[in-house]
Automatic annotation (TrEMBL):
Keywords: TPR repeat. This is Tetratricopeptide repeat protein. InterPro entries: TPR-like_helical_dom_sf, TPR_rpt. The keyword rRNA processing does not apply. Gene3D superfamilies: Tetratricopeptide repeat domain (1.25.40.10). It comes from Thioclava nitratireducens. TPR repeats lie at residues 63-96. The keyword Iron does not apply.
Length: 618
């Protein structure tokens, strides 16, 4: 029923409701404001602007006309006008989500990306339900390599709105940021709310990949590929996911058969070429791997972030740091490189720096591995170096032997840091060589809190009563390499000495695995220390490690922390093939990186019997 057909009583009721909703005592103006929003929803910008302008003249202290005028200016791509209108609205209501989102979009039009994403995050926090803004926010954060942060903000929006669309945007953000454990349930929720769209069904395949349900993925992919009306772009993506699952299952030949598929999407074919490179690495055919990576690198203009990183790490795994470092530099998106160019790490530039800010990237394990390279960089004597990272790194950095300061990521903007004073920590690899690592490895630069170490050691010794105290970590959640790097806890326990106190160092809820493993080795005492949370308290985790007699771990953050701490009796299980991280090189038992770890390498892909026998014989 339109306003013209309403009775006088109904018009009064509607006017009263509008006046309350828009905060305008003048009922006629309130109805005009309502009509302006309706015109905006109908994409009639000129009419919406005329009505909003009318209200703004009579009620300039009300935010709503300015919000409508700002939105119309955005639609016209009039950045300056939109900025002024939204700023006017935010002066009246500083936390209005529509105003924050609108001003963020205006900042995008003005190419002020960092201000825009900050405004978008505030809008989400304040209750925005602007889905186009959410998509834009996810895209911009992805370009800045900050997708995981975007996903965690967007998840608040998804939990509030409860729609499949926003859950799917959230899932994609997590997947882009390689936060697989957070992406999987978001994809599953999107499909639960709306199961029919093909994108959501593919999202379920990705969830299976992230949960390492590779057989389930293959079955699901085969079912989708059997559908005759499947669009080619989706078919390409499904084929690529299926290949990743086949390789994770150890079915290398079947995975390589994927190359016979006629791809229409060059980006998906590029990923398949990259996966084929990994297949060749699994077979130790390094020449074929090099050819596959280089073909993937040149297939799409610029190579793509992941393939540049993959080829760079391949070369550095071979020991060729000089050739690998420039490719590895391409891991950062262009938006990040405009802010922090690779050239900032050039030796002639570092030689002039009296202060330098090392910006974190990737995971904690990678940061621990890369940070000590700063000691090889050609900085002038007395230069002040600050590591910029997560708050949980602060105690360890400030107590380290590197002589560097610490600042949280959120603090940098307040410190007056010039762009040329920043480098990404991974850019330091250009200062490494196999010979330099052999002469002076990188380990032992962190120092755990001695008081915490002694307190934790005393607790464990009281429990052990003279028995060995061994820490264990056995699982990686990485969707692509995790299956090849992980093993069952009960399998790992075969290598441990009789009667040992076994301390759980594995992240996440592992209660069921611990209970099952305990039944296989009743002579062992398996202990989960609830007093220590490695995610929230990295300093406490370091103290826990140094309180242990021995550590047996797969290649994960635990192994890197043991290396950085210089733990004297740590044994790391190294997989064969592509899942062997580049830090460890291709061969050798003492690690080339930290210098204090003992590496136990597979002789056959997927077979841990040899490495475990080596550890059991100690």
């Amino acid at each position: 029923m339109t306003q013209t057909t309403l009775s006088r009583k109904d018009r009064r009721a509607r006017a009263a409701k509008a006046a309350k909703y828009y905060g305008i005592a003048d009922s006629a103006a309130a109805l005009t404001m309502h009509e302006a929003y309706e015109a905006l929803a109908a994409a009639d910008g000129p009419h919406a602007a005329r009505l909003a302008h009318e209200v703004s003249q009579a009620h300039p202290a009300n935010r709503h006309p300015w919000l409508v005028l700002g939105t119309v200016a955005l639609d016209r791509r009039e950045a300056e006008a939109a900025t002024k209108f939204f700023e006017r609205a935010l002066l009246i209501a500083p936390t209005d989500p529509m105003g924050l989102a609108g001003l963020g979009k205006a900042r995008v039009l003005k190419a002020d990306i960092f201000a825009a994403i900050d405004l978008f995050a505030q809008a989400i926090e304040r209750g925005s339900e602007d889905v186009p803004m959410a998509r834009l926010y996810a895209d911009l954060m992805g370009r800045l390599d900050r997708s995981t942060t975007a996903g965690r903000n967007l998840r608040k929006m998804a939990e509030r709105m409860k729609t499949a669309e926003i859950w799917f945007i959230t899932a994609d953000a997590f997947a882009t940021g390689e936060s697989n454990a957070e992406a999987a349930p978001a994809y599953e929720e999107a499909a639960r709310l709306s199961p029919a769209p093909i994108a959501h069904r593919i999202g379920l395949l990705k969830a299976k990949l992230f949960r390492q349900n590779y057989r389930g993925l293959i079955v699901g992919a085969d079912a989708l590929l059997a559908e005759a009306d499947l669009p080619p772009a989706h078919r390409d993506e499904i084929v690529t996911l299926r290949m990743a699952a086949l390789r994770a299952c150890g079915e290398t030949e079947r995975a390589l058969e994927t190359l016979s598929h006629r791809f229409e999407d060059p980006a998906q074919f590029q990923r398949v070429l990259g996966f084929s490179g990994n297949c060749h690495l699994d077979r130790e055919d390094f020449r074929a791997a090099r050819i596959a990576f280089r073909e993937a690198l040149h297939l799409v203009d610029g190579g793509g972030l992941w393939v540049r990183r993959a080829y760079g790490t391949f070369l550095m795994g071979e020991g060729d740091f000089a050739a690998g470092a420039p490719y590895y530099a391409g891991r950062q998106p262009d938006a990040n490189r405009r802010r922090i160019p690779y050239e900032n790490s050039d030796p002639e530039r570092l030689a002039t720096r009296d202060r330098l800010f090392l910006v974190d990237e990737q995971g904690i394990g990678d940061q621990l591995a890369l940070l000590p390279i700063i000691g090889r960089a050609p900085l002038p004597a007395g230069a002040k170096v600050t590591f910029v990272g997560e708050a949980r790194m602060k105690p360890l950095i400030e107590r380290s032997g590197l002589g560097i300061a610490f600042a949280e990521t959120t603090e940098v903007d307040k410190m007056g840091v010039a762009p040329e004073e920043m480098i990404f920590v991974g850019d330091l690899v250009r200062y490494l060589s196999v010979e330099a690592l052999a002469a002076r490895p990188l380990g032992g630069y962190l120092n755990a809190d001695p008081v915490q170490v002694e307190m934790t050691r005393a607790r464990y010794r009281e429990m052990a009563q003279g028995r060995p105290i061994v820490g264990v970590a056995w699982h990686s959640s990485d969707a692509i390499t995790g299956a090849h790097r992980s093993l069952a806890l009960e399998t790992m326990l075969r290598a441990l000495p009789e009667g040992a106190l076994v301390v759980n160092l594995q992240y996440g809820d592992r209660e069921a695995e611990l209970a099952q493993a305990a039944r296989s080795r009743p002579d062992l005492t398996l202990f989960h220390d609830a007093a220590i949370d490695q995610f929230a308290d990295l300093d406490g985790f370091a103290a826990q490690i140094m309180a242990l007699d021995r550590v047996v771990s797969i290649d994960n953050t635990t192994a890197h922390l043991c290396g950085a701490l210089g733990h004297p009796d740590t044994h790391v299980l190294i997989p064969k093939g592509a899942a062997c991280m580049w830090y460890w090189g291709r061969q050798g038992s003492p690690d080339r990186w930290y210098g204090n770890l003992q590496l136990h390498r597979q002789a056959q892909l997927g077979d841990w019997s040899g490495p475990l026998s080596e550890i059991a014989a100690l």
